[in-house]
Design brief:
Blueprint lengths: L1 H21 L36 H10 L5 H10 L3 H5 L5 H18 L5 H20 L9 H10 L3 H6 L5 H30 L10 H39 L9 E9 L3 E8 L8 E8 L7 E9 L1
Length: 313
């Protein structure tokens, strides 16, 4: 009920905003000497409000997109489902999944509250259901663009390597996971050594070596610094995994083959149209504007025969 009321309010706000837009009286500056603004509207047109367009996407736009189930991008659906689970399924016209999601999450949360000794499985179940709902919204998003770079980016953000698999770059997956394994190993090793020397400093009676207190402090700080470097390395591998999925999804439509060639075919050139430059004087001392205008030729001109040159590289 609350979800339906929010959608109706968003639709009403959008309609009100469009009504107020039509009542504004604003003008913008266009080409000197013309009465057309930079957006192609006459300057005396009161149905267009030039100037500051405001934010490109707002929460009102999100609810309006949900109400009409159109116009939302996959990243909008993703971030919306992070805040409000089930909205992605509503937008994807799979409303039957919403009670399943909330039923599983509610059952797991209720089990965690009722159980005092074994809450971990219920908490894991609630988190897994939430994660699956977000993932399902991205996977089931319908788009005419293939591949969709934003979708592949989200794939790698949720599950590292999935974006590379969607791009067909399967050989990159073990490279990224080898990077995760290496940074995780150094992270754990340096954390262990840091805790060891930290414990020696806190409990000197447990240390029976030959290192001085100054040396113990130096080793403790060294392993703490290396641990921080390992954390940064893990974050770097994760970010590179996301960037790689996005970039190569964009590049998948480019032709990068080594096929190079030149083709030449006969063609007929139409000379019946002539291009003429027209100068429009400016107003108030503004410089004149030159416009190219194509018009039929006065004298009859026969078509010419030529060649069309095509270069593939």
């Amino acid at each position: 009920m609350v979800f339906s009321i929010a959608l109706l309010c968003a639709s009403y706000n959008t309609a009100s905003a469009q009504h107020n837009l039509s009542e504004g009286t604003f003008t913008t500056n266009g080409v000197p000497g013309s009465n057309i603004d930079n957006n192609g509207y006459p300057q005396n047109d009161t149905t267009y409000t030039g100037g500051d367009e405001g934010p490109t996407f707002t929460i009102g736009d999100y609810f309006h997109g949900l109400a009409i189930q159109d116009s939302l991008k996959v990243q909008h659906v993703f971030f919306g489902s992070l805040l409000m689970p089930g909205t992605a399924q509503y937008y994807n016209r799979q409303k039957w999944k919403i009670p399943v999601i909330y039923g599983l999450m509610g059952g797991c949360i209720g089990g965690a509250i009722a159980s005092k000794e074994n809450r971990a499985p219920f908490v894991i179940g609630a988190v897994a259901t939430y994660f699956a709902s977000v993932l399902d919204g991205v996977v089931c998003y319908k788009s005419d663009v293939t591949p969709l770079p934003a979708r592949h980016t989200i794939y790698s953000a949720l599950i590292p390597g999935w974006g590379q698999a969607a791009n067909g770059d399967y050989w990159k997956i073990p490279i990224f996971y080898a990077g995760f394994a290496a940074t995780a190993y150094f992270w754990a090793t340096n954390q262990q050594q840091y805790n060891r020397y930290k414990n020696y400093l806190l409990h000197p009676e447990e240390y029976h070596g030959s290192l001085s207190q100054k040396d113990l402090i130096w080793y403790r700080d060294k392993h703490r610094r290396y641990r921080d470097y390992s954390i940064l390395g893990t974050a770097l591998v994760y970010i590179l995994n996301i960037i790689d999925a996005n970039v190569f999804a964009h590049m998948s439509s480019f032709d990068i083959s080594d096929d190079m060639g030149i083709t030449m075919t006969p063609s007929v050139i139409d000379n019946s149209m002539q291009s003429t430059e027209v100068s429009v004087p400016g107003e108030g001392g503004a410089p004149a504007t030159t416009i190219n205008v194509s018009k039929p030729s006065v004298a009859p001109v026969e078509p010419a025969i030529g060649f069309t040159l095509g270069i593939t590289f």
